[in-house]
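During the reporting period the student researcher (J.K.) took over the structure-prediction task from the postdoctoral fellow and processed the backlog of single-chain submissions. One of the processed entries is reproduced below for the supervisory committee.
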Amino acid sequence: MARSPRLDAPLGRGTTRARPTSRDRFGRFTEWVARAMGTPAFLLMLTLFCVAWILWNTLTPDHLRFDDAALGFTALTLMLSLQASYAAPLILLAQNRQDDRDRVQIEQDRQRAERNLADTEYLAREIVALRMALEERNTQLVTRDVLRNELKALLAELDPADEKHGEKLGAEKHTGGAAS
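J.K. obtained the following structure tokens:
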């Protein structure tokens, strides 16, 4: 029975959708190599490896040595050259991938900035239009008292029994609250 993918969870490594291509896998591998070679741990391990190599080939008996110190540790030199000849292109590939991602991110940022600028200009035009409309009408802003009187009138229309109560409140308002 095929299990349907969950849409509320991000895709994990075990999903069958959007499998990475071999190019993506190799690209991720190059980035891993570049990241690993740029760490102090890698440099320390490489240094310890070289020191151990040199010590082994100088301090052990002649029949256990595999790289002659008299020849300048030829095998070690070849190994380090081989490591460097592979490391440099892998690091460059990882940098190219990062440059591609940066280029896409810059383009998305530019598009986002254009949309923000367009939105800001639109809002500024709308505010100016509202200000001009207010100036043209030269209308009075609604005060709390005007709003209160309008609401009382509407309530009076809805319920005739409240009309007397509304008139009483209006009388109190005009006399300053002295009427009871």
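The committee noted the following: The first helix runs from residue 22 to 37.
J.K. will present the remaining backlog at the next meeting.
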